[in-house]
Amino acid sequence: MDGIMSKNNLEYLIERNDNVYEVVIGLEVHAQVTSNSKLFSSSATKFGAEPNTQVSLVDAAFPGMLPVINEYCVKQAIRTGIGLKAKINNKSVFDRKNYFYADLPQGYQISQYKYPIVGEGNVILDMPEGQKHVGIERLHLEQDAGKSIHDVDPNNTLVDLNRSGVALMEIVSKPDLRSPDEVNAYIKKLRSIMRYLGTCDGNMQEGSLRADVNVSVRIKGSTDLGTRCEIKNVNSIKFMQMAIIYEANRQVDLIEEGEEIDQETRLFDTKKNETRSMRSKEDAHDYRYFPDPDLLPLEITDDFIDQLKSEIPELPDDKKKRFIDEFKISPYEATILVSDIDTAKYFEEVVAKMGKNRDMKLAVNWITGELFAVLNNKNIEIANSPISAKNLAKLINLIKNGTISGKIAKTIFELMLDGDIDPQIIVEEKGLKQQSDPKALEALIDKIINDNREKAIEYKQGKEKLFGFFVGQAMKASGGKANPQLINEILKKKL
Amino acid sequence: MTEITSLSLFELIKNIKEKNISSNEVAKSFIDRSEKSKKLNAYVTENFENCLKLSKEFDNKPNFDLKLPGIPIAVKDLFCTNEVRTTAGSNILNNFVPSYESTVTQNIWNEGGILLGKLNCDEFAMGSSNETSFFGNVQNPIAKDLVPGGSSGGSSSALAANLTPITIGTDTGGSIRQPASFTGTVGLKPTYGSCSRYGIVAFASSLDQAGPMSKDVKDSSILLEVISSFDKKDSTSIDFQRNNYSSELTRNIKGIKIGIPKEYRVDGMPGEIESLWKKGIEYAKDCGAEIIDISLPHTSYALPTYYIVAPAEASSNLARYDGVKYGLRSSGKSLIDMYEKTRSEGFGEEVKRRIMIGTYVLSSGYYDAYYLKAQKVRQLIKQDFDQAYNKVDAILTPSTPSSAFKIGEKSNDPVSMYLNDIFTVPVNLAGLPGISIPAGVDKNNYPLGLQIIGKPFDEQTVLNIAYSMEEKINYKTNITDWWME
Q1: Is B233 part of the contact surface with chain A (CB cutoff 8 Å)?
Q2: Residue that finishes a domain, picked among A308, A334, A350
């Protein structure tokens, strides 16, 4: 690729010769519904179970078996729709998507085609340059397929039907995304909203969140959409970004060479970092969608929707607004704190435990600074933080009320990690309490000035740099426990 | 006493309850007669030994409060029966033994019924003569080499030949009523949603409905009471207040309004069907019914509509028979090759034809012209009935446009075969209850049936009209046991 990619803060553009291209991206996210049982059967959905141990007669499509809708999954889809500020449709229809595959026992997937359960909505992205709205086209419910395993037996493909029939929500965005960074922010925001709602755990390693990525390019400024390619089933944000970059450049190269882009389905090869043609538009499956005659249309009353609406927890956007208003923290800080429900919970608990004399600045700094560093280092989720919100709040209060200095607090923080120890106890056991008694400090400083009379004279004659020397001596003499502010005050007076 | 096997279900129950006969004696009689009737080819799978064992168990510990106390019953091989092979008349399920029971058969066993065997049928219930079965033709006991109708042909044959006291069939486009008509028996297709489809091998989900087949109307009312139930396992099952059909059965139909749809006077209809219908109208009048001419204007579109909707659903319903999980698997070089070989060898010609038609009408570019249009017409057909039912309580028509035909006579002419369903299909499309009762014979002495169609969930009125007309018609079967020689 000989072009220069420009990537400033605002946009992702590809430059070739005199042309500047922008990339247009739409995502179809498949999110596994958090539910103990499958969409149309009572089989369990636990991840990682022994193959074919969570399969009912319905999931394996035995003759005469019939699907029965799981009401909980319907509620989860509606909750998600509410979280996406989307229209909930009073009537939706389950359709059969017909195709043959070994891990598709019915020979069709039950999905929603013409009439999805959730219609248009939108998601707000907090980008460094400001907010961006991404339109949601629809959300529909569908069954997952089973899993074909090709690499266990040399002569046979093995099929595991544990996943067969598990409920998925397909969330289709409008082609509103313009860069890999926006895709990153979009997936994270979707994940965040669903985790707040408890409708999808968002675990990409376990395949709870996967996406088909639609990519097209066009000359910057054009309003027409280019021919798009769909990259199937990408299961990490990093791979989505890599696939988009590769695919957008591939398309630009084709256009620059005067060639046409074929509308096709492509696969992303993570090892070679390239996308490859899977099937062209001509080879596209004819899925022969038609309404599933085994299921009645799904009818949802406004009362049912209102009831669910009334139970929706505070979502990231609202929480952010409240954090800014109530706690007077910056929008940037609030964005970080609300991005994950467990972080927000932790922060709110710290705030609550700090009590009346709370210090937000300290709380934010300690959580996003020291605590995040430890969690990142040790690869621990904040929900399993080695230091509880209660004890972190205590530590912050000890700083705030002058019992310890910020420097000592860092030492104590390290000690707390070993079993979530109460910082108060560490302070007492190790005698780390800050020396804030002015009389004792005055005596200590008098002694230092006496011991260093010549330097004191030099200071008075104008060698102001020596002030730092006296501060250092005083801190040293106190074993680091002296209140630095008091030391400064007393020294200024005495020198 | 008359032979046990020629007793009606009602009489058998009475005799068992009065301890005149034991369940085991009843089972033995039917098994004995079935053994002598292999030429009819009515059974696909016999359950005789187990039936004898269970009947003894019943006699040792009888419960006479049950509705079918120790009654042996053979059922169409479309109902999945726990631990008993279930083939749907197809090679692809030749070796299939379910580990579960259909709701309808479970209801029967819960009321004391005992499985006698599984009865032959057209493959996946696709056919009107039982000639599409992988397990061969079934003889109509009425005369040699006569079809018993279809798809519940094994059921109608076994019932008419007294191999089972009663039976159940399934009816997607006439598969209970047409074979009943061809064998001089009674067949009732209940309202869609009355009997659970759980555990019934699916043909066309929006049309399939199980129902009783019996020697007389009273017996059908007894069995309907047992099999009609709301079932959470079938999302299309309907929770409505069901009648006590047998105890509410009455011949008092005075003032009931019966409609005669002019559109059922189709071109080329044999004179004897026309005169049978006229006689039927007279019988209904004799019973005290009021006869009213009605119009069901979209009738002529019913058959083409049916032959789009039913194959469309079937093409999808039969996709699960792919050799991967159960049933026949032919070996192939690749997955696709295995699919092709399995399905080529597993399915018969008629099933393949309907899969092809169904796949075609659902294909992109054809969906709107065929499937979607058919669904619209189906609504119009439903509306025809809704409007008619503003004026009448039930509708009287012939059951079939002809009597039973010879084996092989129509098997190479699918369209003329499909025409057999012309009077029964609209009832399935509209989801209504319909019954066929024997009403006379043609010039060959072959039985002819009349159909009574009711309002949704009004099986009681349908049964009552049939019950009172049955008395006036006084049809007597003339089966000679020719196949036993």
Answers
A1: yes
A2: A308
